[in-house]
Every structure is written in structure tokens, then in C-alpha cells.
Amino acid sequence: MIYSRFTSLAVALLLALEVTVAQPHGKRHHKRSPKAVAEPTAETQTEYETVYVYVDENGNKIENYSPEASAPAPEQHSVDVSSLNTANTANKGVASISGSKPGIVYSPYNDDGSCKSSAQVSSDFASLQDYPLIRIYGVDCNQVSNVLAAKASSTKIFVGIFNVIDSTQFNNDMSSLIKSASSSWGSIHTVAIGNELVNSGASVSAVVSALNSARTTLRAAGYTGPVVTVDTFVAIMNNPILCQNSDYIAANCHPYYDGKVDASGAGSFLTTQSANIKAACPGKDLLYTETGWPHQGEPNGLAKASVSDQTTALKSIWAAMGSNVILFTFRDDLWKQNTAATFNAEKYWGIKDYSIFN
């Protein structure tokens, strides 16, 4: 998991929106940069005064930190929004999930990080037959073919290209996706180009360029469904060009990382952020492509991580959002690394009580 970088101007904007940073999940291929990242957290001294304490990625206080001195120069985007083909970026109205249950994130890895076999994937999917949408993140481990073979006939798959910035890997992964899915395009709900790339420091223009290139390639291969880039809701609001170039708004939003929201408020947090995100991206549908709550880890302000808190949070999310979310995640990701930056909860987002959705 990698913390977002914010300029002082961005922090002021978020405060105006009453938004605090919901930290994203690190994925299997993320490599944490050793460079310290200054991250503002608010500590209320009085009812009227707010003081910022800057911490590094491990949560340690940075003394004498100057955000003005450390803020990067504004990025110069090379993409001209006015020149885009609006037929490619129109809201296609398919951000919703058809069915009575939410979507679920699935990762095809064993506890040691090795690839699950096709038989293991099929065994996992025996528990997911009633879920209308399953999200995967990449093409490694033959996951696209294995998931398409294991899913129920009515289930759609939200697929992704994880390696985007390296052009050779990006092209190879695109070829792999098309080879695996070209005979099953009707089963593909959405293709995501990248996950939380801008939040992790990637160039906005590079992500948008890859997104539009991928859409062109996919259209030529016969895929006519939505193509998006997924990022944190904060990154999207700070860079609306991401949603302007996506066929709908695909946002990750985790109330647990806000610090001011307990489990019972998870649903209302998502509802509030929905309005803020849509205001930044008018005319676009929104799908929360990751949300959930850990069942183990350290407290983060009002947010506590326990099985009962997870159940409470998921009930709150279910009541507020219905099936129009993708929940993180099918089972615990024990191949990940817990850190202080993730409140030692990174491994423990697997849903414990699926009866909530019956």
C-alpha cells in the first residue's frame, strides 16, 4: 500500500469538501518506494483550530517538515481533453451491477504468493456462483482463462491490466487479455487499465494515454464494453481527466482509512463521497470498484478492525449502496505484507460473513 502525495492546495481542497484520505490497498505487484512520503493527518486541538502532523510511510512523525518546500512542481499534462473522441468516453450507463448481490474482488494467489491452479480457482468459485460480478486485477497466473472457465454462466468479470507504465509489459498483457477473453467478450463487464496508478505517483498523462490506447486496441479486437482506469476517489477528484476519459467513474473508497468513521458509518461515508465524486465528474455513472472493512488490524481513529466491526460495516455499506459496489475481498490475502502504514490490516480484508447478502 502506497500513500498518496498531496500539495498544500490539494489538502485545502479536501478539507473544504470535508474529505479525508482513504488509503488504497497495495496489490501484489506493488513495490514500496524507500523514499519517505509526507502525509498530512489532522489533529484537532480545539473546536476551531486544526494542526497538521506530517508522517512518513511508516507513521513516524517528520520534524520540521515544510509542505511548500517538498511539494512537487505541478504536473504538465500532455492530454487535451477537448480533442478527445466523445463517442469513446460517453457514459454508457453500465456502471451498475445486475443482480441482488454486490460484486466481489478475487485474487488467484496462494498464501505464499504462488499461482492457484485452475482446479483451485474452480473450487473457490463454487462459493461465488450467486455473485453477479467478480473483479480481478491482471492477466498473470492464467487468471482470465481460469476465472472465465470457473464462473457461473450469469456472472460477469471485471478484468484488469495491472502493468501499464512499462510499454512492453503493457502490450504483452493486452495481448494476453485479448487471447484469453476474445471468445467471451459477452462475459466481460469492464476492462480496467491500471489500479490506483495516479495515487501511487504515476503520471496522469501516461495513464490517460494508456487508457485511450487500450480502448482503441480492444475495440479493434471486438470488445465493445466499458474501458476505465481505476483510482482512489481522492485521486479522481484531484484529476477529473481520469474519469473524463473513462466510460464511467471507477473509484476505490475505503472508509476504514478515513480515521473519523466507525464501522456503522461506512455506508454514509460512501454516500457522501458519491456526491463529491460525481460533482467532479458530471454526467458520469459511478461504481465503487473496491470498498470493505478489515476484520483484524490496529485501530485507525474511530475505525476498529474486528469481525464484528467488519460485519457492521458491510451491513452499513449494503444498506446504503445495495449491489452497486465491488467488495474487497473474497478471502484474506495472506501473501501480502502488513505494515504500520496499513495499520497491520493489509492481509485481513477477507469477508467473514457472507450471510449478510442473503
UniProtKB/TrEMBL annotation:
UniProt signal peptide:
1-22
Keyword Secreted included in the entry's annotation: no
Q: Which SUPFAM superfamilies does the annotation name?
A: (Trans)glycosidases
A molecular function (GO) held by this record is: glucan endo-1,3-beta-D-glucosidase activity
**Gene Ontology terms: biological process:** cell wall organization
Q: Where are the annotated segments for Disordered?
A: 23-43
Q: Where is the composition biased (Basic residues)?
A: 25-34
Q: Where in the cell is it found?
A: Cell envelope
One cellular component term (GO) for this entry is: fungal-type cell wall
Record-linked InterPro entries: Beta-glucan_modifiers, GH
Sorted UniProt keywords: Hydrolase, Signal
Does the record bear Hydrolase in its keywords? yes
- Give the family per the record: Belongs to the glycosyl hydrolase 17 family.
Q: What is this protein called?
A: Glycoside hydrolase
